[in-house]
């Protein structure tokens, strides 16, 4: 792999990981609020989230790197990258909505749009790179689980 490609891969991974890093500021400050919420029986222990999200952000970085490698001159690549950025932004605002504003409802609305944006991104990536699309499957599965969890918390806490 050439130096330029390695640099692109690093930038793509750092971009995705920065979403989790920014979100960590909101989860730390709201831990007392979250601890007092009623949660469903399938709520994972808190220590699960950081390693899962870290792995997912790295996989997302590899996925978007594969698309970026196709070149920015193609219209299909540009559109796919725009949708990737949209879903990344929706991902980034979920944590401030849920933990910062302490609003499971607002976070649920966001995660529905996030899920749709991920699905569109997967479809667009598939047309350019099957590997890039398949790398996003664990991400949409985890967001599906997170949406069910988010919905349950919202319902259980009025």
Describe it for me?
This protein has about 160 residues and is mainly alpha-helical. It has one domain (about 5-155): Ferritin (Up-down Bundle), CATH 1.20.1260.100. Helix content is about 80%, strand content about 0%. The protein has 7 helices and no strands. Helix 1 (about 5-30) runs parallel beside helix 4, helix 4 runs antiparallel to helix 5 and helix 5 packs antiparallel against helix 7. The longest helix has 27 residues, at about 5-30. The chain is elongated and about 50 Å long. The relative contact order is 0.15.
Write the layout of secondary structure elements.
Layout: H1 3-29, H2 31-35, H3 49-68, H4 75-100, H5 104-128, H6 130-135, H7 137-156
Helix pairs in contact: 1-3, 1-4, 4-5, 5-7
Please outline what is shown here:
Helix content is 82%, strand content 0%.
Rg estimate, integer Å: 16 Å
Distance between the ends: 52 Å
CATH homologous superfamily descriptor: TspO/MBR protein
User: How much of the sequence is in beta strands?
Assistant: under 5%
| Strand-pairing-aware structural class | mainly alpha
Spans of at least 5 consecutive residues with low confidence = none
Task: Using the alpha-carbon principal axes, give the shape.
Answer: elongated
CATH domain class name: Mainly Alpha
Question: How many separate domains?
Answer: 1
User: Count of helices?
Assistant: 7
Query: So, CATH architecture?
Result: Up-down Bundle
Main sheet makeup: none
Let me know the average pLDDT.
94
How many extended strands? Answer: 0
| Run of helices and strands | HHHHHHH
CATH fold group: Ferritin
The proportion of residues forming helix, as a percent range, comes to over 70%
């Amino acid at each position: 792999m050439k130096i330029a490609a390695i640099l692109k891969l690093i930038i793509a991974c750092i971009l995705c990981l920065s979403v989790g890093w920014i979100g960590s500021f909101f989860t730390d400050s709201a831990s007392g609020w979250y601890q007092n919420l009623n949660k469903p029986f399938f709520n994972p222990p808190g220590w699960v989230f950081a390693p899962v999200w870290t792995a997912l952000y790295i996989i997302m970085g590899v996925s978007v790197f594969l698309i970026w490698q196709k070149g920015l001159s193609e219209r299909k690549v540009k559109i796919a990258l725009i949708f990737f950025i949209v879903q990344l932004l929706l991902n980034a605002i979920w944590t401030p909505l849920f933990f910062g504003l302490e609003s499971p409802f607002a976070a649920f609305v966001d995660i529905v749009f996030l899920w749709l944006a991920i699905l569109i991104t997967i479809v667009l990536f598939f047309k350019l790179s099957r590997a890039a699309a398949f790398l996003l499957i664990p991400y949409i599965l985890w967001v599906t689980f997170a949406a069910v969890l988010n919905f349950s918390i919202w319902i259980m806490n009025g």
